[in-house]
Design brief:
Low-confidence stretches of chain A: none
Low-confidence stretches of chain B: none
Strand order of the largest sheet of chain A: 2-1-3-4-5
Shape of chain B: elongated
Number of strands of chain A: 12
Mean pLDDT of chain B: 83
Number of helices of chain A: 8
Helix content of chain B: 55-70%
Order of helices and strands of chain B: HHHHHHEHHEEHEEHEEE
Oligomer: heterodimer
Strand content of chain B: 15-25%
Structural class of chain B: alpha+beta
Number of helices of chain B: 10
Number of strands of chain B: 8
Strand order of the largest sheet of chain B: 2-4-5-7-6
Radius of gyration of chain A: 18 Å
Structural class of chain A: alpha/beta
Largest sheet of chain A: 5 strands, parallel
Radius of gyration of chain B: 34 Å
Helix content of chain A: 25-40%
Largest sheet of chain B: 5 strands, mixed
Largest interface: A-B, 19 and 21 residues
Distance between the termini of chain B: 66 Å
Shape of chain A: globular
Order of helices and strands of chain A: EHEHEHEHEHEEEEHEHHEE
Protein backbone atom coordinates (compact mmCIF):
# COMPACT_ATOMS: atom_id res chain seq x y z
CA UNK A 1 0.00 0.00 0.00
CA UNK A 2 3.04 2.22 0.01
CA UNK A 3 3.48 4.70 -2.81
CA UNK A 4 -0.23 5.26 -2.94
CA UNK A 5 -1.01 8.53 -4.71
CA UNK A 6 -2.71 11.19 -2.66
CA UNK A 7 -4.22 14.43 -3.93
CA UNK A 8 -4.38 17.33 -1.48
CA UNK A 9 -6.92 20.07 -2.26
CA UNK A 10 -6.37 22.98 0.13
CA UNK A 11 -5.97 26.71 -0.50
CA UNK A 12 -3.67 27.34 2.49
CA UNK A 13 -0.09 27.02 1.29
CA UNK A 14 1.18 26.22 4.81
CA UNK A 15 -1.20 23.32 5.26
CA UNK A 16 -0.42 22.09 1.76
CA UNK A 17 3.34 22.13 2.41
CA UNK A 18 2.85 20.47 5.79
CA UNK A 19 0.77 17.68 4.23
CA UNK A 20 3.23 17.26 1.36
CA UNK A 21 6.20 16.93 3.72
CA UNK A 22 4.35 14.62 6.10
CA UNK A 23 2.98 12.37 3.39
CA UNK A 24 6.13 12.24 1.25
CA UNK A 25 8.24 11.33 4.25
CA UNK A 26 5.80 8.47 4.80
CA UNK A 27 6.27 7.14 1.27
CA UNK A 28 3.15 8.49 -0.35
CA UNK A 29 3.15 10.22 -3.73
CA UNK A 30 1.61 13.63 -3.26
CA UNK A 31 0.02 16.00 -5.72
CA UNK A 32 -1.61 19.20 -4.59
CA UNK A 33 -4.11 21.74 -5.80
CA UNK A 34 -4.92 25.16 -4.35
CA UNK A 35 -8.46 25.47 -5.69
CA UNK A 36 -11.53 23.37 -6.35
CA UNK A 37 -11.17 23.80 -10.11
CA UNK A 38 -7.54 22.68 -10.15
CA UNK A 39 -8.34 19.82 -7.77
CA UNK A 40 -11.17 18.48 -9.91
CA UNK A 41 -8.98 18.72 -13.01
CA UNK A 42 -6.11 16.75 -11.46
CA UNK A 43 -8.51 14.19 -9.97
CA UNK A 44 -9.98 13.60 -13.44
CA UNK A 45 -6.70 13.39 -15.34
CA UNK A 46 -4.65 11.38 -12.83
CA UNK A 47 -7.14 9.69 -10.50
CA UNK A 48 -5.35 9.36 -7.13
CA UNK A 49 -5.81 6.57 -4.60
CA UNK A 50 -7.13 9.01 -2.02
CA UNK A 51 -8.17 12.66 -1.91
CA UNK A 52 -7.72 15.01 1.04
CA UNK A 53 -10.25 17.80 0.57
CA UNK A 54 -10.48 21.03 2.55
CA UNK A 55 -14.09 22.15 3.05
CA UNK A 56 -13.26 25.86 2.98
CA UNK A 57 -12.05 26.52 -0.57
CA UNK A 58 -12.09 30.03 -2.06
CA UNK A 59 -13.67 29.24 -5.43
CA UNK A 60 -16.23 26.61 -4.51
CA UNK A 61 -17.91 25.18 -1.45
CA UNK A 62 -16.21 21.95 -0.37
CA UNK A 63 -19.54 20.15 -0.07
CA UNK A 64 -20.33 20.75 -3.72
CA UNK A 65 -16.80 19.67 -4.76
CA UNK A 66 -17.38 16.47 -2.81
CA UNK A 67 -20.68 15.87 -4.58
CA UNK A 68 -19.06 16.42 -7.99
CA UNK A 69 -16.23 14.04 -7.12
CA UNK A 70 -18.64 11.38 -5.92
CA UNK A 71 -20.40 11.33 -9.29
CA UNK A 72 -17.55 9.24 -10.62
CA UNK A 73 -14.76 8.96 -8.05
CA UNK A 74 -15.19 5.86 -5.86
CA UNK A 75 -11.97 5.82 -3.85
CA UNK A 76 -11.68 7.35 -0.36
CA UNK A 77 -12.12 11.07 0.27
CA UNK A 78 -10.90 12.54 3.55
CA UNK A 79 -12.32 15.87 4.66
CA UNK A 80 -10.36 18.62 6.40
CA UNK A 81 -12.34 21.23 8.25
CA UNK A 82 -11.52 24.16 10.52
CA UNK A 83 -14.90 24.38 12.10
CA UNK A 84 -15.59 21.60 14.50
CA UNK A 85 -19.20 22.04 13.52
CA UNK A 86 -20.78 18.63 13.84
CA UNK A 87 -23.47 19.41 11.30
CA UNK A 88 -20.88 20.24 8.68
CA UNK A 89 -19.05 16.99 9.31
CA UNK A 90 -22.19 14.86 9.31
CA UNK A 91 -23.23 16.49 6.03
CA UNK A 92 -19.86 15.71 4.43
CA UNK A 93 -19.98 12.10 5.65
CA UNK A 94 -23.51 11.70 4.34
CA UNK A 95 -22.36 13.12 1.02
CA UNK A 96 -19.89 10.30 0.68
CA UNK A 97 -16.76 11.40 2.50
CA UNK A 98 -14.98 8.47 4.11
CA UNK A 99 -13.57 10.31 7.08
CA UNK A 100 -12.83 13.71 8.51
CA UNK A 101 -10.14 15.57 10.40
CA UNK A 102 -10.60 18.84 12.24
CA UNK A 103 -7.75 21.36 12.08
CA UNK A 104 -5.54 21.35 14.07
CA UNK A 105 -4.94 17.60 13.68
CA UNK A 106 -2.08 15.43 14.83
CA UNK A 107 0.15 13.79 12.25
CA UNK A 108 -0.33 10.37 13.80
CA UNK A 109 -4.05 10.72 13.50
CA UNK A 110 -3.80 11.85 9.88
CA UNK A 111 -1.66 8.85 8.91
CA UNK A 112 -3.90 6.44 10.76
CA UNK A 113 -6.99 7.76 8.97
CA UNK A 114 -5.27 7.57 5.59
CA UNK A 115 -4.06 4.01 6.18
CA UNK A 116 -7.43 2.86 7.39
CA UNK A 117 -9.21 4.45 4.41
CA UNK A 118 -6.77 2.89 1.94
CA UNK A 119 -7.07 -0.48 3.64
CA UNK A 120 -10.84 -0.59 3.41
CA UNK A 121 -10.40 0.33 -0.22
CA UNK A 122 -8.25 -2.71 -1.02
CA UNK A 123 -9.66 -5.47 1.16
CA UNK A 124 -12.54 -6.73 -0.85
CA UNK A 125 -11.61 -10.32 -0.31
CA UNK A 126 -14.16 -13.00 0.34
CA UNK A 127 -12.76 -14.08 3.69
CA UNK A 128 -15.81 -14.36 5.92
CA UNK A 129 -13.79 -14.09 9.16
CA UNK A 130 -12.81 -10.65 10.35
CA UNK A 131 -10.00 -10.53 12.90
CA UNK A 132 -10.05 -7.56 15.22
CA UNK A 133 -7.49 -7.83 18.00
CA UNK A 134 -9.06 -10.32 20.46
CA UNK A 135 -12.32 -10.40 18.54
CA UNK A 136 -13.17 -12.77 15.72
CA UNK A 137 -16.27 -12.15 13.71
CA UNK A 138 -17.32 -14.96 11.40
CA UNK A 139 -19.78 -13.57 8.89
CA UNK A 140 -20.36 -17.07 7.47
CA UNK A 141 -21.55 -18.75 10.63
CA UNK A 142 -22.66 -15.49 12.27
CA UNK A 143 -20.60 -16.13 15.38
CA UNK A 144 -18.47 -13.77 17.42
CA UNK A 145 -15.61 -14.95 19.55
CA UNK A 146 -13.55 -13.06 22.06
CA UNK A 147 -10.30 -14.75 23.09
CA UNK A 148 -11.74 -17.86 21.46
CA UNK A 149 -14.83 -17.86 23.60
CA UNK A 150 -18.18 -17.45 21.93
CA UNK A 151 -20.06 -14.28 22.84
CA UNK A 152 -23.82 -14.49 22.79
CA UNK A 153 -25.29 -11.59 20.86
CA UNK A 154 -28.88 -10.80 20.00
CA UNK A 155 -29.78 -10.49 16.32
CA UNK A 156 -29.66 -6.67 16.41
CA UNK A 157 -26.38 -6.61 18.34
CA UNK A 158 -24.85 -8.93 15.77
CA UNK A 159 -26.11 -6.81 12.87
CA UNK A 160 -24.61 -3.71 14.45
CA UNK A 161 -21.26 -5.35 15.15
CA UNK A 162 -20.91 -6.86 11.70
CA UNK A 163 -21.76 -3.52 10.11
CA UNK A 164 -19.03 -1.91 12.20
CA UNK A 165 -16.49 -4.61 11.48
CA UNK A 166 -17.03 -4.43 7.73
CA UNK A 167 -16.25 -0.72 7.81
CA UNK A 168 -13.43 -0.85 10.27
CA UNK A 169 -11.77 2.51 10.96
CA UNK A 170 -14.51 4.54 9.36
CA UNK A 171 -16.84 6.92 11.19
CA UNK A 172 -20.41 5.79 10.85
CA UNK A 173 -22.95 8.54 11.52
CA UNK A 174 -25.91 8.05 13.82
CA UNK A 175 -28.31 8.42 10.90
CA UNK A 176 -26.44 5.86 8.80
CA UNK A 177 -26.45 3.28 11.59
CA UNK A 178 -30.12 3.81 12.38
CA UNK A 179 -31.08 3.50 8.71
CA UNK A 180 -28.97 0.39 8.13
CA UNK A 181 -30.02 -1.49 11.27
CA UNK A 182 -33.56 -0.36 12.00
CA UNK A 183 -34.68 1.13 8.70
CA UNK A 184 -35.42 4.63 7.34
CA UNK A 185 -38.34 5.12 9.75
CA UNK A 186 -35.99 5.08 12.72
CA UNK A 187 -33.59 7.85 11.69
CA UNK A 188 -34.66 10.08 14.58
CA UNK A 189 -34.90 7.28 17.13
CA UNK A 190 -31.34 7.59 18.33
CA UNK A 191 -32.26 6.25 21.76
CA UNK A 192 -32.24 2.70 20.31
CA UNK A 193 -28.73 3.22 19.02
CA UNK A 194 -27.53 4.46 22.43
CA UNK A 195 -29.00 1.45 24.16
CA UNK A 196 -27.58 -1.12 21.76
CA UNK A 197 -24.16 0.51 21.68
CA UNK A 198 -24.08 0.36 25.48
CA UNK A 199 -25.19 -3.30 25.47
CA UNK A 200 -22.71 -4.26 22.77
CA UNK A 201 -19.89 -2.56 24.62
CA UNK A 202 -20.75 -4.49 27.77
CA UNK A 203 -20.36 -7.73 25.81
CA UNK A 204 -17.29 -7.09 23.68
CA UNK A 205 -15.24 -4.46 25.49
CA UNK A 206 -12.80 -5.37 28.22
CA UNK A 207 -13.74 -2.15 30.00
CA UNK A 208 -17.09 -0.90 28.64
CA UNK A 209 -16.42 2.55 30.13
CA UNK A 210 -13.19 2.89 28.21
CA UNK A 211 -14.19 1.37 24.89
CA UNK A 212 -11.35 0.21 22.68
CA UNK A 213 -13.47 -1.10 19.80
CA UNK A 214 -16.49 1.15 19.50
CA UNK A 215 -15.25 4.70 19.95
CA UNK A 216 -17.60 7.67 20.31
CA UNK A 217 -17.15 10.49 17.81
CA UNK A 218 -18.83 13.25 19.75
CA UNK A 219 -21.97 14.51 18.03
CA UNK A 220 -21.19 12.64 14.81
CA UNK A 221 -21.34 8.91 15.31
CA UNK A 222 -19.16 5.93 16.16
CA UNK A 223 -15.94 4.48 14.83
CA UNK A 224 -14.95 0.83 15.06
CA UNK A 225 -11.25 0.40 15.70
CA UNK A 226 -9.82 -3.07 15.33
CA UNK A 227 -6.25 -2.58 14.21
CA UNK A 228 -3.43 -0.93 16.07
CA UNK B 1 -35.71 56.26 38.75
CA UNK B 2 -38.87 54.47 37.67
CA UNK B 3 -37.43 53.79 34.24
CA UNK B 4 -40.43 51.80 33.05
CA UNK B 5 -42.68 54.87 33.47
CA UNK B 6 -40.43 57.18 31.48
CA UNK B 7 -40.70 54.72 28.59
CA UNK B 8 -44.35 55.70 28.09
CA UNK B 9 -44.76 57.44 24.74
CA UNK B 10 -44.81 61.26 24.50
CA UNK B 11 -48.50 61.44 23.53
CA UNK B 12 -49.51 59.23 26.45
CA UNK B 13 -47.39 61.30 28.83
CA UNK B 14 -49.37 64.42 27.80
CA UNK B 15 -52.69 62.63 28.20
CA UNK B 16 -51.82 61.21 31.60
CA UNK B 17 -50.48 64.56 32.90
CA UNK B 18 -53.54 66.49 31.78
CA UNK B 19 -55.89 63.77 32.99
CA UNK B 20 -54.23 63.64 36.37
CA UNK B 21 -54.44 67.40 36.86
CA UNK B 22 -58.14 67.41 35.88
CA UNK B 23 -58.88 64.45 38.13
CA UNK B 24 -57.16 65.97 41.16
CA UNK B 25 -58.82 69.34 40.50
CA UNK B 26 -62.24 67.71 40.25
CA UNK B 27 -61.57 65.87 43.52
CA UNK B 28 -60.54 69.08 45.21
CA UNK B 29 -63.53 70.92 43.78
CA UNK B 30 -65.96 68.38 45.19
CA UNK B 31 -64.28 68.80 48.57
CA UNK B 32 -64.11 72.60 48.32
CA UNK B 33 -66.59 72.87 51.19
CA UNK B 34 -64.00 71.36 53.53
CA UNK B 35 -60.72 72.67 52.17
CA UNK B 36 -59.74 76.23 51.34
CA UNK B 37 -58.37 77.22 47.96
CA UNK B 38 -54.87 77.72 49.42
CA UNK B 39 -54.73 74.06 50.44
CA UNK B 40 -55.87 73.15 46.93
CA UNK B 41 -52.80 75.01 45.62
CA UNK B 42 -50.59 72.70 47.66
CA UNK B 43 -52.41 69.58 46.47
CA UNK B 44 -52.04 70.69 42.84
CA UNK B 45 -48.34 71.48 43.40
CA UNK B 46 -47.89 68.00 44.82
CA UNK B 47 -49.53 66.54 41.70
CA UNK B 48 -47.23 68.51 39.41
CA UNK B 49 -44.20 67.41 41.46
CA UNK B 50 -45.21 63.76 41.14
CA UNK B 51 -45.60 64.15 37.39
CA UNK B 52 -42.19 65.84 37.26
CA UNK B 53 -40.56 62.79 38.90
CA UNK B 54 -41.51 60.43 36.10
CA UNK B 55 -42.30 62.36 32.93
CA UNK B 56 -40.39 64.47 30.42
CA UNK B 57 -40.11 68.25 30.68
CA UNK B 58 -42.88 69.24 28.23
CA UNK B 59 -45.75 67.25 29.76
CA UNK B 60 -44.65 68.59 33.17
CA UNK B 61 -44.75 72.20 31.99
CA UNK B 62 -48.17 71.67 30.42
CA UNK B 63 -49.38 70.16 33.71
CA UNK B 64 -47.96 73.15 35.62
CA UNK B 65 -49.63 75.66 33.29
CA UNK B 66 -52.94 73.81 33.26
CA UNK B 67 -53.01 73.41 37.04
CA UNK B 68 -52.27 77.12 37.52
CA UNK B 69 -55.11 78.10 35.20
CA UNK B 70 -57.52 75.59 36.74
CA UNK B 71 -56.64 76.81 40.21
CA UNK B 72 -57.21 80.40 39.16
CA UNK B 73 -60.49 79.71 37.36
CA UNK B 74 -62.19 77.26 39.72
CA UNK B 75 -60.74 78.01 43.12
CA UNK B 76 -59.49 81.57 43.56
CA UNK B 77 -62.43 83.83 44.40
CA UNK B 78 -64.26 85.11 42.49
CA UNK B 79 -64.77 81.63 41.06
CA UNK B 80 -65.27 80.88 37.34
CA UNK B 81 -63.29 83.90 36.19
CA UNK B 82 -59.65 84.43 35.58
CA UNK B 83 -60.03 87.65 37.48
CA UNK B 84 -58.14 87.87 40.78
CA UNK B 85 -59.64 90.32 43.25
CA UNK B 86 -57.06 90.75 46.02
CA UNK B 87 -53.39 91.60 45.71
CA UNK B 88 -52.58 88.68 48.07
CA UNK B 89 -54.29 86.18 45.75
CA UNK B 90 -52.52 87.70 42.76
CA UNK B 91 -49.22 87.25 44.53
CA UNK B 92 -50.13 83.67 45.48
CA UNK B 93 -51.04 82.88 41.87
CA UNK B 94 -47.76 84.26 40.62
CA UNK B 95 -45.83 82.29 43.24
CA UNK B 96 -47.74 79.13 42.34
CA UNK B 97 -46.89 79.58 38.72
CA UNK B 98 -43.19 80.10 39.40
CA UNK B 99 -42.86 77.24 41.93
CA UNK B 100 -44.65 74.79 39.63
CA UNK B 101 -42.34 75.67 36.75
CA UNK B 102 -39.13 75.59 38.80
CA UNK B 103 -40.27 72.27 40.22
CA UNK B 104 -40.66 70.78 36.78
CA UNK B 105 -37.44 72.18 35.37
CA UNK B 106 -35.28 71.27 38.37
CA UNK B 107 -36.55 67.72 38.69
CA UNK B 108 -35.90 67.22 35.04
CA UNK B 109 -32.38 68.56 35.31
CA UNK B 110 -31.63 66.25 38.25
CA UNK B 111 -32.82 63.31 36.22
CA UNK B 112 -30.67 64.26 33.29
CA UNK B 113 -27.60 64.52 35.50
CA UNK B 114 -28.41 61.16 37.05
CA UNK B 115 -28.67 59.61 33.62
CA UNK B 116 -25.33 61.05 32.61
CA UNK B 117 -23.71 59.64 35.75
CA UNK B 118 -25.23 56.25 35.05
CA UNK B 119 -24.03 56.27 31.46
CA UNK B 120 -20.56 57.24 32.57
CA UNK B 121 -20.51 54.42 35.11
CA UNK B 122 -21.60 51.92 32.50
CA UNK B 123 -18.97 53.16 30.12
CA UNK B 124 -16.31 52.83 32.79
CA UNK B 125 -17.50 49.30 33.52
CA UNK B 126 -17.24 48.37 29.83
CA UNK B 127 -13.78 49.89 29.60
CA UNK B 128 -12.73 47.98 32.71
CA UNK B 129 -14.12 44.73 31.31
CA UNK B 130 -12.38 45.41 28.03
CA UNK B 131 -9.10 46.05 29.81
CA UNK B 132 -9.44 42.86 31.82
CA UNK B 133 -10.10 41.01 28.60
CA UNK B 134 -7.11 42.55 26.88
CA UNK B 135 -4.81 41.86 29.82
CA UNK B 136 -5.98 38.31 30.18
CA UNK B 137 -5.98 37.68 26.45
CA UNK B 138 -2.66 39.26 25.67
CA UNK B 139 -1.08 37.27 28.46
CA UNK B 140 -2.73 33.97 27.67
CA UNK B 141 -2.22 34.25 23.93
CA UNK B 142 1.20 35.83 23.90
CA UNK B 143 2.82 33.36 26.27
CA UNK B 144 2.35 30.38 23.93
CA UNK B 145 3.19 32.53 20.92
CA UNK B 146 6.42 33.64 22.58
CA UNK B 147 7.23 29.99 23.26
CA UNK B 148 6.68 29.04 19.64
CA UNK B 149 8.64 31.96 18.21
CA UNK B 150 11.54 31.43 20.59
CA UNK B 151 11.70 27.68 20.11
CA UNK B 152 11.54 27.87 16.31
CA UNK B 153 14.29 30.55 16.29
CA UNK B 154 16.49 28.20 18.24
CA UNK B 155 15.73 25.24 16.01
CA UNK B 156 16.34 27.25 12.83
CA UNK B 157 19.55 28.96 13.83
CA UNK B 158 22.42 27.11 12.24
CA UNK B 159 25.02 28.31 14.69
CA UNK B 160 23.49 26.87 17.85
CA UNK B 161 24.84 23.63 19.21
CA UNK B 162 21.59 22.08 20.34
CA UNK B 163 21.75 18.58 21.70
CA UNK B 164 19.25 16.05 20.36
CA UNK B 165 17.44 16.10 23.70
CA UNK B 166 17.16 19.88 23.64
CA UNK B 167 15.85 19.83 20.10
CA UNK B 168 13.21 17.36 21.14
CA UNK B 169 12.27 19.45 24.14
CA UNK B 170 11.90 22.58 22.02
CA UNK B 171 9.67 20.72 19.58
CA UNK B 172 7.57 19.47 22.48
CA UNK B 173 7.28 23.03 23.80
CA UNK B 174 6.03 24.20 20.43
CA UNK B 175 3.47 21.45 20.35
CA UNK B 176 2.20 22.21 23.86
CA UNK B 177 2.05 25.94 23.19
CA UNK B 178 0.07 25.40 20.00
CA UNK B 179 -2.43 23.17 21.76
CA UNK B 180 -2.81 25.76 24.48
CA UNK B 181 -3.46 28.44 21.88
CA UNK B 182 -6.04 26.20 20.28
CA UNK B 183 -7.79 25.74 23.62
CA UNK B 184 -7.94 29.52 24.15
CA UNK B 185 -9.36 30.06 20.70
CA UNK B 186 -11.98 27.37 21.32
CA UNK B 187 -12.99 29.13 24.53
CA UNK B 188 -13.23 32.49 22.82
CA UNK B 189 -15.35 30.96 20.06
CA UNK B 190 -17.68 29.34 22.59
CA UNK B 191 -17.98 32.63 24.42
CA UNK B 192 -18.80 34.56 21.28
CA UNK B 193 -21.38 31.94 20.34
CA UNK B 194 -23.02 32.55 23.70
CA UNK B 195 -22.66 36.33 23.46
CA UNK B 196 -24.10 36.58 19.97
CA UNK B 197 -27.27 34.85 21.12
CA UNK B 198 -27.06 32.52 18.16
CA UNK B 199 -26.26 29.46 20.19
CA UNK B 200 -28.40 26.71 18.79
CA UNK B 201 -28.73 23.62 20.85
CA UNK B 202 -29.19 20.28 19.14
CA UNK B 203 -30.81 17.93 21.59
CA UNK B 204 -30.47 14.23 21.09
CA UNK B 205 -30.61 11.20 23.34
CA UNK B 206 -27.50 11.01 25.52
CA UNK B 207 -26.10 8.14 27.49
CA UNK B 208 -24.81 9.94 30.57
CA UNK B 209 -22.40 7.13 31.38
CA UNK B 210 -20.87 7.55 27.93
CA UNK B 211 -20.77 11.33 28.34
CA UNK B 212 -18.94 11.16 31.67
CA UNK B 213 -16.38 8.55 30.64
CA UNK B 214 -15.81 10.10 27.24
CA UNK B 215 -14.98 13.46 28.83
CA UNK B 216 -12.66 11.84 31.35
CA UNK B 217 -10.95 10.04 28.50
CA UNK B 218 -10.29 13.36 26.76
CA UNK B 219 -8.74 14.71 29.97
CA UNK B 220 -6.68 11.61 30.69
CA UNK B 221 -3.41 13.52 30.57
CA UNK B 222 -4.52 16.23 33.01
CA UNK B 223 -6.30 13.86 35.39
CA UNK B 224 -3.50 11.31 35.49
CA UNK B 225 -2.46 12.09 39.05
CA UNK B 226 -5.90 12.56 40.53
CA UNK B 227 -8.11 10.02 42.23
CA UNK B 228 -11.42 9.89 40.40
CA UNK B 229 -14.53 8.63 42.17
CA UNK B 230 -17.23 8.15 39.58
CA UNK B 231 -20.75 7.29 40.52
CA UNK B 232 -23.32 7.16 37.78
CA UNK B 233 -26.67 6.02 39.13
CA UNK B 234 -27.72 2.51 38.12
CA UNK B 235 -30.49 2.48 35.52
CA UNK B 236 -30.10 6.17 34.77
CA UNK B 237 -32.41 6.96 31.85
CA UNK B 238 -31.28 8.47 28.56
CA UNK B 239 -31.63 12.27 28.51
CA UNK B 240 -32.34 14.55 25.59
CA UNK B 241 -29.43 17.00 25.72
CA UNK B 242 -26.86 18.60 23.47
CA UNK B 243 -24.00 16.14 23.78
CA UNK B 244 -21.32 18.54 22.53
CA UNK B 245 -22.28 21.35 24.90
CA UNK B 246 -22.61 19.06 27.90
CA UNK B 247 -19.24 17.52 27.11
CA UNK B 248 -17.77 21.04 27.13
CA UNK B 249 -19.45 21.78 30.49
CA UNK B 250 -18.01 18.67 32.10
CA UNK B 251 -14.67 19.21 30.41
CA UNK B 252 -14.30 22.75 31.75
CA UNK B 253 -15.27 21.76 35.30
CA UNK B 254 -12.97 18.75 35.37
CA UNK B 255 -10.16 20.68 33.73
CA UNK B 256 -10.45 23.34 36.43
CA UNK B 257 -10.52 20.70 39.12
CA UNK B 258 -7.41 19.11 37.65
CA UNK B 259 -5.32 22.28 37.53
CA UNK B 260 -6.50 24.04 40.68
CA UNK B 261 -6.24 21.11 43.08
CA UNK B 262 -3.08 19.36 44.18
CA UNK B 263 -2.03 16.20 42.36
CA UNK B 264 -3.40 13.02 43.96
CA UNK B 265 -6.39 14.98 45.27
CA UNK B 266 -9.78 13.28 45.04
CA UNK B 267 -12.35 14.36 42.48
CA UNK B 268 -15.91 13.08 42.81
CA UNK B 269 -18.21 12.87 39.81
CA UNK B 270 -21.83 11.99 40.46
CA UNK B 271 -24.70 11.67 38.01
CA UNK B 272 -28.23 10.92 39.13
CA UNK B 273 -31.83 11.43 38.20
CA UNK B 274 -34.04 13.70 40.17
CA UNK B 275 -37.72 13.10 39.49
CA UNK B 276 -40.10 15.73 40.68
CA UNK B 277 -43.61 14.29 40.97
CA UNK B 278 -46.56 16.60 40.89
CA UNK B 279 -49.46 15.07 42.79
CA UNK B 280 -53.11 15.69 42.48
CA UNK B 281 -54.41 15.58 46.03
CA UNK B 282 -58.04 15.13 45.13
CA UNK B 283 -58.86 12.21 47.39
CA UNK B 284 -62.57 12.19 46.70
CA UNK B 285 -62.19 10.81 43.20
CA UNK B 286 -59.25 8.51 43.62
CA UNK B 287 -58.25 6.10 46.29
CA UNK B 288 -54.73 7.45 46.26
CA UNK B 289 -53.55 10.81 45.22
CA UNK B 290 -52.53 10.35 41.61
CA UNK B 291 -49.38 11.55 39.96
CA UNK B 292 -50.42 14.29 37.60
CA UNK B 293 -47.08 14.99 36.10
CA UNK B 294 -43.46 14.05 36.47
CA UNK B 295 -40.52 16.29 35.68
CA UNK B 296 -37.10 14.73 35.36
CA UNK B 297 -33.90 16.54 36.19
CA UNK B 298 -30.41 15.35 35.50
CA UNK B 299 -28.15 16.16 38.41
CA UNK B 300 -24.40 16.27 37.84
CA UNK B 301 -22.12 16.95 40.77
CA UNK B 302 -18.41 17.64 40.46
CA UNK B 303 -16.69 17.89 43.79
CA UNK B 304 -13.01 18.33 44.42
CA UNK B 305 -10.69 18.21 47.37
CA UNK B 306 -8.85 21.43 46.78
CA UNK B 307 -8.57 24.83 48.39
CA UNK B 308 -12.17 25.74 47.53
CA UNK B 309 -13.15 29.27 46.57
CA UNK B 310 -12.76 32.41 48.71
CA UNK B 311 -16.18 33.09 50.21
CA UNK B 312 -16.40 36.65 48.92
CA UNK B 313 -15.63 35.53 45.37
CA UNK B 314 -18.10 32.62 45.15
CA UNK B 315 -20.67 34.65 43.26
CA UNK B 316 -18.28 36.24 40.83
CA UNK B 317 -16.56 33.15 39.46
CA UNK B 318 -19.19 32.67 36.75
CA UNK B 319 -18.65 36.21 35.46
CA UNK B 320 -16.91 36.65 32.16
CA UNK B 321 -13.15 37.16 32.44
CA UNK B 322 -13.33 36.96 36.22
CA UNK B 323 -10.24 35.35 37.65
CA UNK B 324 -9.64 34.69 41.31
CA UNK B 325 -7.22 37.21 42.71
CA UNK B 326 -4.58 34.60 43.44
CA UNK B 327 -5.22 32.25 40.53
CA UNK B 328 -2.42 30.61 38.62
CA UNK B 329 -1.84 31.15 34.91
CA UNK B 330 -3.41 28.96 32.30
CA UNK B 331 -6.94 30.26 31.91
CA UNK B 332 -8.79 33.14 30.33
CA UNK B 333 -11.46 33.40 32.98
CA UNK B 334 -13.92 32.06 30.45
CA UNK B 335 -14.27 28.42 31.47
CA UNK B 336 -16.88 28.84 34.17
CA UNK B 337 -18.92 31.46 32.33
CA UNK B 338 -19.10 29.03 29.40
CA UNK B 339 -20.28 26.34 31.82
CA UNK B 340 -23.00 28.65 33.10
CA UNK B 341 -24.00 29.75 29.60
CA UNK B 342 -24.26 26.22 28.22
CA UNK B 343 -26.17 24.92 31.25
CA UNK B 344 -28.57 27.84 31.05
CA UNK B 345 -29.05 27.17 27.35
CA UNK B 346 -30.57 23.88 28.57
CA UNK B 347 -32.74 25.85 31.07
CA UNK B 348 -30.63 24.36 33.82
CA UNK B 349 -28.87 25.79 36.84
CA UNK B 350 -25.36 25.52 38.17
CA UNK B 351 -24.55 26.15 41.81
CA UNK B 352 -21.11 26.47 43.34
CA UNK B 353 -20.54 25.95 47.03
CA UNK B 354 -17.64 25.29 49.31
CA UNK B 355 -17.68 21.98 51.12
CA UNK B 356 -15.25 20.85 53.82
CA UNK B 357 -11.86 20.56 52.05
CA UNK B 358 -13.04 21.52 48.59
CA UNK B 359 -15.58 22.92 46.21
CA UNK B 360 -18.75 21.45 44.74
CA UNK B 361 -20.49 22.31 41.50
CA UNK B 362 -24.07 21.07 41.23
CA UNK B 363 -25.74 21.12 37.84
CA UNK B 364 -29.46 20.52 37.48
CA UNK B 365 -30.98 20.23 34.05
CA UNK B 366 -34.62 19.56 33.27
CA UNK B 367 -34.77 17.12 30.36
CA UNK B 368 -36.91 14.63 28.56
CA UNK B 369 -35.99 11.09 29.56
CA UNK B 370 -36.31 7.68 28.03
CA UNK B 371 -36.20 4.48 29.98
CA UNK B 372 -36.02 2.14 27.01
CA UNK B 373 -32.50 1.23 28.08
CA UNK B 374 -33.97 -0.61 31.05
CA UNK B 375 -36.37 -2.71 29.06
CA UNK B 376 -35.23 -6.15 28.09
CA UNK B 377 -36.07 -5.70 24.46
CA UNK B 378 -34.68 -7.26 21.36
Amino acid sequence: MNNAAILVIDDEVQIRRLLEITLESNQFNVESADSAKEGLRIAATHPPDLIILDLGLPDENGHSVLKKLREWYTRPVLILSVQSSEEDIVKALDNGANDYLVKPFRTGELLARIRSALRSNTTEDSNPVIDCKELQIDLGTRTVKKNNEIIKLTATEYKLLSLFAQQEGKVLTHQYLLREIWGPGYINQSQYLRVFIAQLRKKIETDPNRPAYIVTESGVGYRFIAKE
Amino acid sequence: MLPQLSKISKANQFLISVGLVILVSAGCYSLSVYIGYKVVAFILLLTVSLIAIVFDILPVLIAALLSALVWNFFFIPPKFTFHISTAEDGFLFLMYFIIAFINGVLTNRIRRIERQVREKEEKEKTVKLYNTLLNSLSHELKTPIATIVGATDNLLSSSSNLSVDNRKELAENISMAALRLNQQVENLLSMSRLESGFLQIHKDWCDINELVYDTIHRLEQQLKGHQLHISVEENLPLYKLDYGLMEQVLYNLLYNASIYTPAYADIFITAKNNAEKIYNLDTTTAEHSEVKNENNFLTLIIEDRGPGFPKEELEKVFDKFYRLSNSITGGTGLGLSIVKGFVEAHNGTVILENVPHGARFTIEIPAETSYINNLKNE
